[in-house]
Automatic annotation (TrEMBL):
Full protein name: LLM class F420-dependent oxidoreductase
Alphabetically ordered keywords of this record: Oxidoreductase
Keyword Ribosomal protein among record annotations: no
Domain called Luciferase-like: residue spans: 12-276
Source organism of the structure: Pseudofrankia asymbiotica
Amino acid sequence: MKIGLYVNGVGPSPQALVDQVRAAAAAGLDSAYFSQIFSWDALTVAALSAQAAPGLALGTAIVQTYPRHPIALAGQALTVQAVSGQPFTLGIGPSHPPLIEGMFGYSYDKPTRHVREYLSPLLPLLRGEQVDYHGETLTAVGAVDAPNTPAPSVLLSALGPVMLRIAGELADGTVTVWTGPKMIGDYIVPAITEAAARAGRPAPRIVATVVASVTADPDATRRWVAEQVGFAAQFPGYRAVLERQGLSGVEDTVVAGDEDTVARAVAEYAAAGVTELVVGPVGEPLDWARTVELLANLRGELTHVT
C-alpha cells in the first residue's frame, strides 16, 4: 500500500500548499493529492507542486465535475501531467446538491447519469482522441491537443452502489472519504472489483482519504474536525455512508492517538484492500510533523492484502 499526503485546498496562499507537498516529498511519501474546496484551484496548485517536488506522484481528490466541462478539465489535467513528468491521478466526483445547486445553479437531477455521461467523453479526450458526444446531460465535441502526454489515471468518488458500478466499469478505481477500513473491505472493494471484472477491466485502485493525527489529545482533535467540517455529515451521500458504519459524524472516522494507535489503523486500511492511503494530518504543527514522520516510516512496510 502506498501512502500519500492529502492537501486541504484551503490555505493562506498557494505557496503554503506547495510547501506541504515539498515537506511530503522530503519525508519520503509516495504522493500528494489536492482537494477543490472553493479556495485555491487544485489543478493549478498541482502544477506548481510538480515543479517544487519533482518525482512525487500527484493527484486530485477531488475536482467537482459539474462546474468544469469535460473538454476544459481534460486540458487542465493533461497540462498537469505534462509538467509533472510523473503519473498524475485525476480524481473527480459530482459533489453534493447544496453546493452544485446552491452555489453554481446547476441541476443535480440525475447525478449518476451525469457521471456516466461525463466520463464517456472525458476518457477519450485524455487519450488525445476526438470526441463527438451528445448525451442527455452534456454535449462534448472536440479534442485536446497535448502532444506526447500520457493519459492521467481517472478515479471516481464513489460510495454508493451505482457510483461504484460506474467506477468499476469506466474509471481506474475510486477515491473514498469518511470511510473506515471495515466499510472499505466489506463493501467498497467487493462492489467495485466485481464491476471491473464484469467489464473486463483490471483490478481497480482503491484510494482512501483519511484525517489523522499523532497527538496526545485525540478528543480535542475530533472536536476540532467536528467544528471545521462537521456540516459534511448533513450531505445525503455522506450521511448514508456514516449511517452504514454506525457513526454519527465525520469526526468519528478520524484516526487519532499515539504512534501505535495510528500505525494500527494504517495497517487495517492496508488489510482492507486499500492500494493507496492518502492522509490529511491535522492538529498543531508538532502533531502535523509527527504524523508525517510516522507515515514516512510506515511507507513500504505495508503490502496490499487481498
